UniProtKB/TrEMBL annotation:
UniProt entry tagged with the keyword Ubl conjugation: no
Region (Disordered): 1-31
Residues making up the signal peptide according to the UniProt record: none
Superkingdom of source: Eukaryota
Family: Belongs to the peptidase M76 family.
Annotated organism of origin: Chaetoceros tenuissimus
Any GO CC annotation of this UniProt entry: mitochondrion
Protein name per Swiss-Prot or TrEMBL: Mitochondrial inner membrane protease ATP23
Organism classification: Eukaryota, Sar, Stramenopiles, Ochrophyta, Bacillariophyta
UniProt feature, compositional bias: Basic and acidic residues: 22-31
InterPro entries reported in the protein's UniProt record: Peptidase_M76_ATP23
Statement: the UniProt record of this protein carries the keyword Hydrolase: yes
One GO term of the biological process aspect: mitochondrial proton-transporting ATP synthase complex assembly
EC number: 3.4.24.-
Alphabetized UniProt keyword annotations: Hydrolase, Metal-binding, Metalloprotease, Protease
Amino acid sequence: MDESKAFPFFLSSPSDGNTQTEQERKEEQKKYKESCDKYILSGLNRNVTIEFLMEKLIGMGCEPPKGFMKCIDCGDKKAGAGFGVVEETVLPPSTSVDKDSISMEKFKREAKDRKKRQCQNEATLQDLQKQIKAQNEGKVNLRLLPEIFLCQQHLVNEDHAHQSIVHELIHAIDLCRSKMDPINNCIHMACTEIRAENLSGECGAVREMINGRTSLQGFRGHGAECVKRRAVLSVEANPNCTEKAKDYVDAAFERCFKDTFPFDRHPNLR
């Protein structure tokens, strides 16, 4: 399975080569969503790690809003889950160019269209690139809002879904406890990805062996390698961080790999 993953903004729509009819696709996605919704319910009600993290979020004063977790159609992008919705606030015009009413109205329409695509789970990497460019030009402010998305058609089973939820809840914990800005600060993004990969169990021996990336005999030290590998993939997906993703992960690794908050110790080590 392709393990590339990041914020849901990077999830792509289905390719044009899909031979399914629209009705067949709707029926298929309906079944995927039913299973995914059950995974969320079972996680919230029976998974002790998910329950613990949700209680911690509430205790920290960050009670999740209604619809905090949802199942979506992620198209052909092989991702298990994603975190965060990018809020785009258009700023008042500050230059003579921006004051051109036609240019500003066009820009506002484009921003509205991007928001609509995001609400419909159709936002693309190009949309995020445009948002970042607009922010750099002083036209908008970007802010990451906490939401968890599960890619309903790419969940292997309940365990996979629960690991994905734990991963995204670690992002939510990090967003709650600090002024984390993963859109613009690549060290912040690297750190939260390292922690999420490490504490979720996604780099456990069994999963890595199933994926053919290691053997039981060769696993010593492999967990850290797995965390680095997966964190780099996520950081690369942020246009602000792509070129030096490995450098950012290397810089943040030692401190963030040791950080097990809100757990007293690593939840998957005995």
